Amino acid sequence: MDQHMGVASKEEEDREEKRTVPEITLRPFTLSDVDGFMTWATDDRVMRFSRRPTCTTKDECLTHMKDLIMPHPWCRAICIEDDGRPVGLVSVTPAPGADVHRASIGFGVAYDYWGRGIATAAVKKAASAVFEEWPLLERLDAIAEVNNTASRRVLEKAGFQREAVLKSYLVLRGESMDMVMYCLLSADSMVR
Ligand SMILES: CC(C)(COP(=O)(O)OP(=O)(O)OC[C@H]1O[C@@H](n2cnc3c(N)ncnc32)[C@H](O)[C@@H]1OP(=O)(O)O)[C@@H](O)C(=O)NCCC(=O)NCCS
What we know:
Elements lengths: L1 H18 L5 E4 L5 H8 L2 H4 L10 H12 L5 E5 L6 E9 L7 E8 L8 H16 L5 E7 L3 H10 L2 E12 L2 E10 L8
Parallel strand pairs: 4-5
Antiparallel strand pairs: 1-2, 2-3, 3-4, 5-7, 6-7
Helix pairs in contact: 2-4, 5-6
The structure holds coenzyme A (COA).
């Protein structure tokens, strides 16, 4: 009986942990984040919507970080623990050329941390930060594969507006995919 109650309360504890949105911080990456980075960059469940191949080794993760993460104009580690180990990534990429009023957001969270509101909190924080840091920004875009329900839900929870379905828009893993275009026109239109 006691044993069963113990199991029940552990399950209840786990459910409670999932219901509580942890306090998150965003900070730039350093190469010493590679172990945290590996938890999602080597996981197909996280990487399958990315145009980058899934890493298979620590060396590949380090190369990816050196080539793409460190030089990126705005890429942040999502951290929830006091030890600062990243559990995900959010990036905002300015549009090329003269379109300085436009940028696009991307994000991913390590599988063990899904469903706790972490991506939604990170997207909101990132959007607030870039609208403040980049005064010329008028429009933050996001595109999500039509069947990527979690990603679409994150964007909608953060207040992004759905604009259009872009048929056969991106090639992901060798297949052309229909994508949904979302946008946020100011930090004020975010859901707080
Ligand atoms: C998308 C992703 C970042 C979400 O991270 P997360 O921290 O779990 O997101 P949140 O907890 O803030 O919100 C997820 C929402 O999607 C919902 N959701 C997740 N999977 C779902 C599914 N299969 N069907 C319906 N809703 C789903 C959750 O219930 C939650 O909504 P709710 O709060 O209304 O219940 C994560 O799943 C991921 O890393 N996916 C792979 C990478 C990716 O797709 N990146 C985005 C590319 S545009």
